[in-house]
Amino acid sequence: MAKYNENPRQATSAPKPLLIAVPDYLNEALKKSLPEMPPGHVFNLYAPMWVEEPFGRKEKKWGLGEDIGVKFEGRGKYKRKLYDARPGGKTSVLQETSKDYSQQTQKLLSALIERQRTAAQKLESVFFPCRLISPLAIGLGNEHPVENGFSFLSPYGLPYIPGSGLKGVLRRAAEELRDSDGTITSKEIDSLFGPEDPRTSKDTSKTAEEFEAQRGALSFWDAFPDCKSMSLEIMTPHYSEYYQKNKSPHDQGQPTPIPFLVVPPNSNLNLIIQCDSSRLPESEYNWRGKLEQIIEYAGKWVGLGGKTAVGYGAFKIDEELKKKTEAEKAAAEEAKRKREEEARLAAIEAEKKRVFEERLSLMSPEEQEKALKLNEVRELLKETADSMKAYESYETNTCQDFNTAFNKLAAKCEELKSDILADALLQEEIKTVLGKIHPWVGKTKKRRDINKLKNSLFPEN
Cα dist. 109→24, 80, 183, 273 in Å? Predict the structure, then answer.
């Protein structure tokens, strides 16, 4: 890149500019697609910080947008310099990154969070729905031309908190709880988070010879803030000469406003943590209760990300979302139990059908005809039992279904009464189904029909 000079024809000691041939339509396509991109792609990949300027008669140069361009006004003794900030640059990058998420980006974020929730339920992980109380600044130390970076996860381009960073914050909170009121012991911390190397740890209870590296029981997932946009905050250092040039501090320094990216407060944040129970100190150890205490303390006194000393990164467990999540988990477990029960019953029915067909193949034609008729009774018994169960659950249009199924069963039982009385097993099946019909099922006439069928088949009862 050529060095900017008041006289473009004057030779400079700068290296020759690097020319890259890029079709102009790519630049136009990028301008159109930039508003649809996730913030991380805008910030890290396609940051609009370079601007094009005339350089000589036929040449052009590129530079950072907020480098100061020199401009003169007037002539002779009236000539003076005007400093003009060029358009684009660092401010444009931050403004473009902090715009509201596009609909496509919101769908991507929702799908990613939902996929995490589904996987967590299948793996029986612990789920803590939290809410940010203050802005979250994470990854400010990442290198970037705007001076302060941010943590975006590739290839999604979405802000995130790495699981390793979350583990470090919660371990520090656990250690502070240990030192303050003894809520948790060093042994419990080591079992949950893994022991720390004594050479880098503040804990002096163990020597380097006693140290044995091993993982803890807890595994921490990456966390994705559920927000609609990024936000901008500004830090204003007043003593840059003291910090950078080792000069004496004074109150006449030039403040330097520095904008940086944050996740806005009131954003939802799901903390998902797995536990390997085989690594716990005791089989009945209440690690969920301990972990919830640690998270509450970390959200109030430790914080996530950077600048926590001035209030950034505070969070808390959202009790309403927690109750909602627990209700959803209970509903999912109930649905899973029902599916398993339905699969079990389906397997039983399939086995019954297989055994019946096998027995049928060994019968004579007369016996087969009789067995098929009795099997019709069994099918009608099942249909009556299912409609009765639906009727008891107050499902719609099930009263008529029950009446229809029972009438078919009663007619078939009257038709095959002699055969039924000769089959003790089928009699027990009929007794079981009729015995489960509650007295309030159907109207008075229907109750009389039920009693009539019972007395017809089993007069001794």
Answer: 32, 52, 37, 20
Q: pLDDT tens across 249-259, in order?
A: 777 777 878 88
Residue type, 285: Y
Q: pLDDT class for 192, splitting at 50, 70, 90?
A: very high
Distances (CA, A) of 159 to 7, 68, 155, 228, 359: 45, 32, 11, 11, 65
The pTM of this model reads: 0.67
Distance CA 440, CA 427 (A): 24
At 3, list the tokens. 């060095």
Q: What is the pLDDT of residue 66?
A: 54
Question: Based on the number of CB atoms within 10 Å of its own CB, is 40 exposed (0-12), middle (13-18) or buried (19 or more)?
Answer: buried
Closest by Cα among 44, 274, 272 to 153: 44
Residue 232 burial (C-beta neighbours within 10 Å; 0-12, 13-18, 19+): middle
DSSP-assigned letter for residue 17: P
Residue 310's nearest CA partner among 256, 234, 258 is 234
**CA–CA gap between residue 107 and residue 111 (Å, rounded):** 6
Rounded distance between C-alpha atoms, residue 132 and residue 316, angstroms: 7
Q: How far is CA 67 from the centre of its chain?
A: 41
- Residues pairing with 315 in the sheet: 132
